[in-house]
Amino acid sequence: MIRVIGLGSPWGDDQAGWRAAQALRGLFDERCVEVSVLDRPGPALLEHWRKEDSVLLLDAVCGAGEAGGLCCLEGDEIARLANAAWSSHHLGVAECVALARTLAAMPARLCLLGLEVGPIQPEDATFAVEHYLPQWTEAARAKITAWLRDPCPRSTAPETATIWNG
Amino acid sequence: MSNERRIEVPVLTRVEGEGALYVHIDGARVADLRLNIFEPPRFFEKFLEGRSWKEIPDMVARICGICPVAYQMSAVHAIETAFGARVTPAIRRLRRLYYCGEWMESHSLHIHLLAAPDFLGYPDAMALAQDHPGIVRRGLRLQGLGNAILGMLGGRSVHPVGARVGGFYRAPDSAEAADLLTRLRAATQDAQDLVRWTAGLKLPAVARQAPLVSLRHESDYPMNEGAIISSEGLAMSAAEFDAHVMEHQVPHSTALHALINGKPYWVGPLARVNNNLDHLPPRTLRLAEETGIRWPSVNPYHSIVARSLEVHFALHEAIALLEQYAPPDKPFVEIVPRAGAGAWCTEAPRGILWQRYELDEEGLVKKSRIVPPTSQNQAQMEADLRASVEENLDLCDDELRARLEAGIRNYDPCISCATHFLNLTLRRT
Q1: Cβ of B17 under 8 Å from any chain A Cβ?
Q2: Burial bucket for residue B38 (CB in 10 Å: 0-12, 13-18, 19+)
Q3: How many CB pairs under 8 A join A and B?
Q4: Mean of the per-residue pLDDT values for chain B?
Q5: Which of B15, B113, B149, B150 to probe by mutation at the A interface, max A CB count within 10 Å?
Q6: How far is CA B373 from its chain centroid?
């Protein structure tokens, strides 16, 4: 199963992940591609995949790039961005992926497609998000299409498992 | 040579939200100790004014991502009290199931990702997971099951939207309930192992004398209902809460401190277990006895064991509720608003959460008050930390800092609920 997960919240540019995921709904056979959106799930993110899955995360990111830029990170590249000092409020995507890696609970394929945004404000999405959203959605569509053509998962970790196996 | 010591820690990690602690030790005396909560107040009580009774459960769920059910349940019961509404036994059981989900989710997160590294010598849960992946996986499984209960009744596990005044917008169908029941039954060994594992942790032996305050129901282990009692003999209804509990502002915290009849007091899982041991079902009580802890306990480090007992209890309670579940004809009772006031208290994972609403004849909120458990524990946390400093003066600054941080985590403070942020400053002179 390919799982497309839009991450974010209803606020400002943070809604970008949800918007992109929603734009992908109905474009693929639902038996092969499941599209969902999550509101800042914390470690519960690990509940949303299984070892045999291909997982595409769509999220607004604040990196070094300019607003509107796209970034693509695969597997361990995401985990390497994790910060060491945690409070429950700091359990972001990178920390959860790092935890999944440590627990051998990574999916077979994991990709984060990020859209660079500015500081999140409790307002509507900015011009950059509105303008680049179609391009971002197209990149996600292309990734899913490539995965559908290549159904044999490549493992991103030496061992894959799930938190549901003891 | 000066006997003064000041120790500062810029960020206290592994708590819900953020804050700071400052300690000034003068010789063998704590000259100053402040649990600083300096994030701006959130003004939720003011936001609620003028809003319809129908909006309140969704709005208060936004106060906390970890314990939204507690905010929703205290609110719906308080508003139903104001309107003179009574829910059906079936809705009461669904609300109890909903709360089981929150206890499982919140306690499992705290035990494994926030508290456990303190007792096993790891800086954080990631380091713990590297050496003990099975323990952290078990925690995530139990947390996931709690989330599944919340998702089934609330529509989603974070900031759920399924609860309403009068019941739920939707009740699960038989197939959903059966599927969840199967998953819960498969986790009973995990819950049992969790209790035995926490009981085996090397926990400091300390004693803190303070009133332990919780709900007490006539027959059930308390979640949504019961009188408010203290270990010192006080018993009161939710309507009498503010006659005994006084909140006050301190300069170093944007969250209010609370005192019960003028004294710091202690709410949370340890208070609940202590005050309701006889309402634990036999299988959970047997485990409590097996731990070797002499209950009731006044050692705040036993809070992690109390939390694990409540995970075990909540799992089995959820199983029992689902075994007798049949979808109700209607998942809510009709509500007719009227002018009035109502107060209610439920047991959030971190302790009693009290709310009071005054509403007009259309059901618009005229006034509200919310007293979260972390605010109630703040004064007692400071008293506990003062005692910890005095008991551990021989420790070096780093060891003392670690001890105090662990001491704060015993209370699982949800600073986000009280407001947000914690740094630690320790000064010795």
Answers
A1: yes
A2: middle
A3: 87
A4: 92
A5: B113
A6: 6
Instruction: Indicate yes or no: CB of A44 within 8 angstroms of CB of B130.
Output: no
Q: Is B60 helix (H, G, I), strand (E, B) or coil?
A: helix
Nearest chain B residue to A85 by CA: give it. Answer: B13
Question: Helix or strand or coil: residue B383?
Answer: helix
pTM of this prediction? 0.90
CB contact under 8 A, A85 and B137: no
Token reading at B233: 């003999």
ipTM, two decimals: 0.81
Please tell me whether residue B64 adopts helix, strand or coil conformation: coil
In the block, which residue shows the tokens 């078990």? B138
Q: Residues B7-17: what's their mean pLDDT?
A: 61
* pLDDT recorded at residue B209: 94
B225 CB-contact burial (10 Å; exposed 0-12 / middle 13-18 / buried 19+): buried
The answer to whether A166 contacts B133, with C-beta atoms less than 8 Å apart, is no
B-facing residues of A in 52-111 (CB < 8 A) are 82, 84-91, 95, 98-99, 102-105
Give the C-alpha distances (Å, rounded to integers) separating B177 from B112, B166, B171, B172. Answer: 27, 21, 10, 6
The strand order across the sheet containing B351-359 reads B340-348, B351-359, B365-371
